[in-house]
Amino acid sequence: MDKIKKVDSVSQFNAKRGQQTLHPLVSVLDQSKSTLIQPARQLSELYIIFLKDAKCSPLQYGRNQYDYQDETLLFIAPGQVFGFDEDVDTLQPNGWALAFHPDLLRGTSLGKHIKDYDFFSYDVNEALHISDRERQLVLECFQKIQYELDHPIDKHSRTLIVSAIELFLNYCVRFYDRQFITREHLNKDVLVRFEELLDTYFDSDKPQTLGLPSVGYCADQLNLSANYFGELVKKETGKSAKDYIHTKVIEVAKEKVFDASKSISEVAYNMGFKYPQHFTRLFKQHVGQSPNEYRMASN
Predict the structure, then answer these.
(1) How far is CA 46 from the centre of its chain?
(2) Which of 73, 22, 72 lies closest to 47 in space, CA to CA?
(3) Where are the alpha helices (DSSP H) in 183-290?
(4) In this structure, are 174 and 190 located in the same domain?
(5) What is the C-alpha to C-alpha distance for residues 203 and 221, in angstroms, rounded to an integer?
(6) Which domain holds residue 279?
(7) Strand 60-61 relative to strand 47-52, pairing
(8) Which terminus, N or C, of the chain has the lesser number of Cβ atoms within 10 Å?
(9) 155-180 per-position pLDDT tens digit
């Protein structure tokens, strides 16, 4: 496989697929009209969303497979690498693609909060699988953008295009919420493994060597992206993943504080805190007493 290639403009993205560029900052492509492309790993400087028409092969999620096998949406943000490691000379793209440069969003409301759409940071195995009705909504949004691209650019074009992109992204938020709900049994499996991971972590010497477990560390151990993992925990428990970890830390700390042979500072260091005062502050926030007060009240 060749080295990673950079995709830094909409016109470059279109040209690679043999398609015309109607606007320098945004494009909607019917991939059935694209020419064959060479598989390659690419570094994107664009926002790119692929709607794959072909039903995907079963994907693993924890110990289970996806249970929603319709069309798939994949989201790529600037600075991310995408592509194929296929052992073939060329591939025929399928479905649709929406690509837009960050400059399109400069000074707009969407430009200020596009980073709030966490799914741009999800891994491939966390892609959005949509039903036929949801697919129609996606295509309607794409058609609104295409309508503007097919007409001469005027002072309203950018506002209408960005509004259509924002509408599409907001639909995707709803679709992802549905996906989390319909995979409740899979989500429970992740939470069970998360709890087991924390138990094992605090039963080992990792707190002394690695410190407190971070959200990123836990997500990595569960083979999930940090953002997807955080969303999953939030929707299933009502707590952020960080708060969930802190709750577990306090649960373990309560037991360790009972050991009068160790000072509170020793307990803090054993738990993975760099500074005892940080442990005391977190403990008091959750328990309403300092570790010392809790120890004395329990005697």
Answers:
(1) 17
(2) 73
(3) 184-202, 206-210, 215-221, 226-237, 241-257, 264-271, 276-287
(4) no
(5) 16
(6) 185-298
(7) unpaired
(8) C
(9) 999 999 999 999 999 999 999 999 99
